[in-house]
Amino acid sequence: MRYAQFDMRSAVQIESQPTNVNGYGFYHIFCAKFAAERKFTGVGPSLSWDASANLIGKPTAGNITLDWGLNGAVLFGRQRMQANHHTTNNYLHNDAYVSVTQTEGSPSRSKQVTVPNLGGFAGVSWRYPDAKVSIGYRADFFFGAMDGGIDTAHRENIGFYGPFATISIGIAG
Fold first, then answer.
1. What angle do CA 148, 87, 156 make, to 5 degrees?
2. Largest CB tally within 10 Å, which of 17, 68, 71, 164?
3. Per-residue confidence (pLDDT) for residue 140, from 0 to 100
């Protein structure tokens, strides 16, 4: 089984003075704010395949191996997105002041989705009968996991990749 939970938050604020000519009694100030929260939570069956090939040494005394593997899953879960938007325009022209404010209703979506997941790794391990030290590179991708849209839904991928290191110690019995 595979479980995944992703949370994203974003906030943007803009302040602009596009046409200020203060010496002539005229100005225009524009302000905008946007904030969004996005989430995916899912669970589903997974399948993985790990393999290794001996490079140097003997498995009973200690050896160095080349390791690789692949994994895949299908996650069934829920995408959620909630956002809010607010703009303000302030104008002054010949002592006449006008302020226009617009607040958008909070777009909110929640829907059931199916998210494919693919990943893999390659690395080198130093193995001893009761311990193992590994280094390598791992990648894991979740396709269409997040709703990255604002007014309409837009499915976006999430990926994690980079180097890794692990230490494993066996408990003899």
1. 5
2. 71
3. 97
